Amino acid sequence: MVDIDYLTFLENILTDNRKEKFLKVLENRTKHFTIVVEDIFQMHNTSAVMRSCEVFGIQELNVIEQRYGKSIDKEIAMGAQKWVDINTFDSITNCIDTIKGQGYQIIATTPHEGDCLLEDFDIAKPSALFFGTERDGLSKEILKRADGFLKIPMVGFTESLNISVSAAIIIQNLTNRLRKTDIDWHLSEQEILEKRLAWAKNSIKDIKRIEERYFLEN
């Protein structure tokens, strides 16, 4: 549970414009969809996907680091790592089991024949959208355990897009459609309080000193 007194204390340090911005952004945040990237060799692509999540209102990004252990490129992310929750997994199995346990269906994004086209995808179910490596696509384990497959319609000679481009197109399309429905896609009241607290802490310089002073006095 969030300590409301502590949240109020921190938010009183922020400007009114900052607090209003938090509330406005949180109104459009969702966990109805979550994004998963698998072993992305070029880390700037993961950073770009994170940026797309932030821009289009996806609150969580899941990163499978089974083969490549790299850090987020903060220049590419442009601060998005402060506002998006990053969950890391050391194996595909652990990631899928965790996400399925949270009630998501596993959707593999692939360019293969027979996959569901983007505009036909049923957005009603909470879905985890998996994106694969630049070189090899998604692993066999993910394809085997997927509940469905999704692809972007293309009319040119090229059969695939860069992962960061694909993610941006899919995230924008699905979140835009989602907000036009009566599906309960918003964050819960508790989740909003948790994000307000986390974002306030991320916005205040010397937060450790301020925290220490607050808890000593209270």
From TrEMBL:
Does this UniProt record's set of keywords contain S-adenosyl-L-methionine? yes
Q: Which reaction does it catalyse?
A: guanosine(18) in tRNA + S-adenosyl-L-methionine = 2'-O-methylguanosine(18) in tRNA + S-adenosyl-L-homocysteine + H(+)
Keyword line: Methyltransferase, RNA-binding, S-adenosyl-L-methionine, Transferase, tRNA processing, tRNA-binding
Locate the tRNA/rRNA methyltransferase SpoU type domain: which residues?
Answer: 33-171
- UniProt GO MF annotations: tRNA (guanine(18)-2'-O)-methyltransferase activity; tRNA binding
- One Pfam family this sequence matches: SpoU_methylase
One of the GO BP terms on file: tRNA guanine ribose methylation
Similarity comment: family membership: Belongs to the class IV-like SAM-binding methyltransferase superfamily. RNA methyltransferase TrmH family.
> What name has this protein been given in UniProt?
tRNA (guanosine(18)-2'-O)-methyltransferase
Species whose genome carries this gene: Flavobacterium segetis
